[in-house]
Amino acid sequence: MTVRQVILGLGSNQDALANFRRCLDALHARFGALLVSRVFESEPVGMPKSQGNFHNLVVAFESDASPVELKAWSKRQEKAQGRLPKSAGASQHPIDIDLLTVGELCGVIDDIALPRAEITANAFVLQPLAELLPEQRHPASGASYAELWQNAQTNHAFTGQRLWPVDFSWHDEPAPHLSDD
Known about the structure:
It is built from 5 helices and 11 strands; from the N terminus they run βαβββαβββαααββββ. The chain is an alpha+beta fold. The protein has one domain: 7,8-Dihydro-6-hydroxymethylpterin-pyrophosphokinase HPPK (Alpha-Beta Plaits). The strands form 3 sheets. Strands 1, 2, 3, 4, 5, 8 and 11 form a 7-stranded antiparallel sheet that branches. Helix 4 packs across helix 5.
């Protein structure tokens, strides 16, 4: 199998920092070294504000797992941390794990769209990604994440999507960091 860089977006609006730590521990146990962005808080996008603010981060790691395997692992992790299915009408999200990219893969692979459209649609995904991997190129557009973030700011693409950095550490290290304890 081919080893590729995997990028996930993590979000939570319920005990977020504790849920992030549990998820990062599980990711580290399964996939090894992780590159972790800063955490950002934002108001909900596309959901009622009554759900409360969300916290988001981006994590990158190397894996030979397929997109299907990565999505299945993510859904098991969400369930293990108490995430209810969307069909249950749950408004609280202990953890939401989105598969953003798997290497340079582009297109729909077993009903998984890669790269995920939310990369360029939401500030809470693009800003941490641009900070974590500024020179990395978006698989479809070829632009670096830093360029995409700068263009979005210049064009006011994220009007109304304000972000606030949140103090967060994982394994007693400030993020962003590379951990392979």
